[in-house]
Amino acid sequence: MTAKLEQSTVLVVGAGIMGSGIAQIAAQAGHPVLLFDVQSGAAEAAREKLVGTFAKLVAKGKFSNESAAQTLSRIETIDSLDRATSVALIVEAIIEEIDIKRDLFRQLEAIVSGECVFATNTSSISVSAIANGLQQPERLVGMHFFNPVALMQLVEVVSGLQTSPAVAESIFRLAESWGKVPVHARSTPGFIVNRIARPFYAETLALLQEQASTPARLDACLRAAGFRMGPCELMDLIGHDTNLAVTRSVYAANYYDKRFTPSPVQQELVDGGLLGRKSGRGFYDYEAPNPETETATPVADTLPSTERLCVHGRGRAAERFVKLLDRYSAKFKRIESSDWCGLQVGDARLSQTDGRPAGRLGREVAVFDLSLADDSGGELAWSHAAAASEQWIFEASQWLAVCGFRPQQIADTPGLVVARTLAMLINEAADAVNQGVCSEEAADAAMKLGVHYPAGPFEWLASWNVNTIINLLDQLDNWYRGERYRISPWLRQQAWQEADE
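Structure (tokenized):
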């Protein structure tokens, strides 16, 4: 099946936030648009709201009065699907219930031509399942936009089992012509973004369940790694009921794979009605006069000690210590061949996490988290062995402070915060590629554009080290036991290939 969609008439079914946004960008791209909603008056109300939207865009200089008027003139509301006989593309943006979506497309099959393409904006339902029972299931494809549609660049083009490759490609090209960045995905639970993003929330929820730290401290550490929002504040913004529902959906659709297990911490928030911003309270109290903040050790300006200093290992953290000691003209040894990375001060050790808690490494040991920045500091998680002396606990935090970080002490837990979160994001993306859900390039683009990650999972992998990630995940698996931290076969294969080169 081939599809010619350029400048063709588009029917958008569903006049909610997503549907009206899709109608807007289609009209902006020059398409005549029919907007329909089963609720009487909803389509007209959505179009009136778009009038106000374009008035604001004109005021900001984004559109001229003429171009705004022309765009709006292309959007026509209809009160019956029978008026849609000549459309070439239908984009469905209605309620997330499979039976209702199926019934809609079956109804439309009796109205439109056999060449009309069907696109569903579903964010979680199987495209294969929606197509089941259609006379022409090959013409149904997922066209998953992100909210707000007019601003978010990403579109996941999702192929079900029977979706025609030509139809998927025509929607891919159409999305490009609408100014979007499309990525191909196979119809599996969560598609790309909602699947790969699960560990971003799950690792923080696991740390909270263990009482390893506070929401504010965990959020601060991940913001320092480049994320726009920390997991707790993002879950508060999304709404815990919504976020939990997505997690439950992915969990059930993956036959209760332990990697996607919902968190009792989030369930309790939902049970208690603490849904986040929309209820006034979630992890944070939005009705409180002053938001919760975290205090940290002030940045130090002198070395805590000059006793028998030695920099171990290679990588960003080791180079940071070398630059620091050179700046203060301190005497130190350098052992690049060490199997750990960090700073030795006398008999004490300040080590970058390899997935093991500090207490597993010795008495006078502190471990610090992965830092993604070469020069800038920010909040950095760290912990110490329970048996460490008060003197070393103090000095360890001072060493991190003199490096320019704002140390955030958490419980002595495996992998700390950023390291375990990034390792799990990379692992999930690797599994998605291994299972044919998407390409490496699509995964990187989807996570940067769909949820504004500072880098894509495979970009992190390229700047980190596959064996380091595997070792960290193995340590997490050894500590917790179970299936949650099992390593993707794709990562193991990469490690074998690198070893053979």
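The domain at 195-276+417-501 is CATH 1.10.1040.50 (N-(1-d-carboxylethyl)-l-norvaline Dehydrogenase; domain 2). The chain has three domains: 10-187, 195-276+417-501, 309-409.
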